[in-house]
Amino acid sequence: MTANIISKVIELDNCNKDLLIKALYTVKFWETVNPAKKIEAKFIAPNVLYSKITDEFVKIPIEMEGELVLQDEGEQEEGKGRLIELNVRNNKDVRELEGRLRIKALSDNKTKLGVFIKSFKLGSDFINLIGKSAAELTLRNKITEMLRNLERWIRNNSLKDLL
Q1: Among 38, 44, 113, 128, which residue's beta carbon has the most beta carbons within 10 A?
Q2: Residues of the chain where predicted confidence (pLDDT) is lower than 50
Q3: Under CATH, which number does the domain 6-162 receive?
């Protein structure tokens, strides 16, 4: 088994596991946690999020467009929580992104969320622009920002507002 290139785990208070899983499949969720300057998003299938993202990397404007596929695998191993596989498709800049989410209830109102990225490969134009190490660091920072945005938002809001 290969090591993850990115592993982030957070415990969320005021967060019900089942509501979090339902929220993942809403555009409002992705707009709320989005760390980029701008996102246009819509679900083109129940588990496929199409997004167009506008952001900036070291003062260079970046636009990305593609699909994030969320494949719910359910409870795989006792005590590890719900497994949702992630991958990106139809993105000219990101050739491959494979990962998984683990969502585990710690109580009715506290949930542990893990984001694990297994592989991340960029298109050659994008790699030439920013380099592989910078791209991985940027992805790591964006995931951290997304989790912080979620944590901040959940502190004062209900996941029901996203449904």
Answers
A1: 113
A2: none
A3: 3.30.530.20
